[in-house]
């Protein structure tokens, strides 16, 4: 059972393409403005890898992101945030950070369709912990709004992948 002060939002979409293609398309962050048109929950993402020198980093492609790299995410809802990449595997990409009364893990899962038809079951998820997590509980005031944003983002991603 999850802790009392936590919530998970998960929105699923089936995309007519294999998981590797969906993952590569999503992680090509330079292409994001070309296909993310409806909800625009994420305006831009870049991945920064610390170089070892104070306050210096290099930009790396999303597909090459590693745990510990910094994601610079610009969204209309949260402004600019700088979460840490938590994982980048063939089946999952995610980052984590805190702010606005939450600790958040945001991730996408690229799962083979259970029908074995070469399609992808995309899971777009965000896990919240902290004192304000109740706002995202099943009947919380933010949950439906966030689910709608994720659905719009997923539909844009689906259209982009299937049209490429």
Summarize the structure in words.
The protein is of the alpha+beta class and 164 residues long. It has a single domain (6-162), classed as 2-Layer Sandwich (Alpha-D-Glucose-1,6-Bisphosphate, Chain A, domain 4), CATH 3.30.530.20. 20% of the residues lie in helices and 40% in strands. The protein is built from three helices and nine strands, in the order βααββββββββα. It has a five-stranded antiparallel sheet with strand order 1-9-8-7-6. The protein has a four-stranded antiparallel sheet with strand order 3-2-4-5, with no helix packed on it. Strand 6 (84-89) and strand 7 (92-99) form a beta hairpin. Helix 1 (19-27) crosses helix 3 (143-162). This is Polyketide cyclase/dehydrase.
| Strand elements, count | 9
The CATH architecture can be given as: 2-Layer Sandwich
CATH homologous superfamily grouping: START domain
Instruction: Report the order of strands and helices.
Output: EHHEEEEEEEEH
Residue stretches low in confidence (pLDDT < 50, at least 5 long) are none
Q: Characterize the biggest β-sheet.
A: 5 strands, antiparallel
Q: What's the domain count?
A: 1
| CATH topological fold name | Alpha-D-Glucose-1,6-Bisphosphate, Chain A, domain 4
What is the arithmetic mean of pLDDT?
89
Q: Quick one: overall form?
A: globular
Overall structural class, as computed from helix and strand content, comes to alpha+beta
Biggest sheet: strands side by side, in what order?
A: 1-9-8-7-6
Pfam families: Polyketide_cyc2
Organism: Extremus antarcticus
Protein name: Polyketide cyclase/dehydrase
């Amino acid at each position: 059972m999850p802790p009392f002060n936590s919530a998970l939002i998960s929105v699923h979409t089936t995309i007519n393409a294999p998981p590797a293609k969906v993952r590569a398309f999503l992680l090509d962050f330079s292409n994001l403005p070309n296909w993310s048109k409806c909800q625009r929950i994420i305006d831009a993402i870049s991945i920064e890898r610390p170089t070892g020198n104070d306050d210096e980093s290099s930009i790396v492609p999303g597909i090459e992101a590693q745990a510990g790299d910094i994601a610079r995410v610009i969204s209309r809802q949260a402004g600019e945030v700088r979460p840490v990449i938590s994982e980048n595997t063939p089946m999952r990409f995610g980052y984590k950070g805190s702010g606005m009364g939450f600790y958040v893990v945001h991730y996408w899962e690229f799962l083979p369709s259970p029908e074995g038809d070469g399609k992808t079951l995309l899971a777009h998820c965000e896990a919240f912990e902290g004192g304000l997590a109740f706002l995202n509980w099943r009947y919380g005031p933010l949950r439906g709004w966030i689910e709608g944003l994720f659905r719009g983002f997923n539909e844009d991603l689906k259209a982009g992948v299937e049209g490429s």
